[in-house]
Amino acid sequence: MKIIQKVLSSMRNAELNNVVSKIIGVFSADLLTKDTALAGVVNEITTLNQALNKSINKDKALSDLEHLDDLRDNDFRAIVALTDG
Fold first, then answer.
1. What is the Cβ-side half-sphere exposure of residue 29, based on CA atoms within 13 angstroms?
2. Which stretches of 3-35 are DSSP H helices?
3. SS3 65
4. For 48-77, what is each residue's pLDDT tens digit?
């Protein structure tokens, strides 16, 4: 498995989310039906990884909204400056 060379503690959340998704994808359904302990671990990791993915997407959406708010505020300030001047 040469796809993942090293998992670092300094990885970004999105990178870790991607690595975990790849690790989960390696386990076949046949293997998970044979090993119930592994299936439990994979299910828990999948749930946590989905929650991490939701948080990343939510943070990205908030960041995009903040950027759009800044653009709107700049336009508003420009209009106020024109009317005050």
1. 0
2. 13-26, 29-34
3. helix
4. 999 999 998 888 888 888 888 888 988 888
Written as six digits, the tokens of 24 are: 């989960």
CB contact burial 31-59 (16+ within 10 A = b; e otherwise): eeeeeeeeeeebeeeeeebeebbeeeeee
Question: Which run of H or of E encompasses 66?
Answer: helix 36-84
The pTM of the full predicted model, rounded to 2 decimals, is 0.62
Burial group, residue 23, by CB count within 10 angstroms (0-12, 13-18, 19+): middle
Is there a contact between 51 and 13 (Cβ–Cβ < 8 Å)? no
Q: Which residue has the tokens 């505020």?
A: 73
Q: Using CA atoms of 29, 35, 41, 46 in order, give the dihedral in degrees to the nearest 10.
A: 0
7: region left, alpha or beta (phi > 0 left; psi from -120 to 50 alpha):
beta
Q: Which two tokens stand for residue 18?
A: 């991607």
Structure tokens at 44: 């828990």
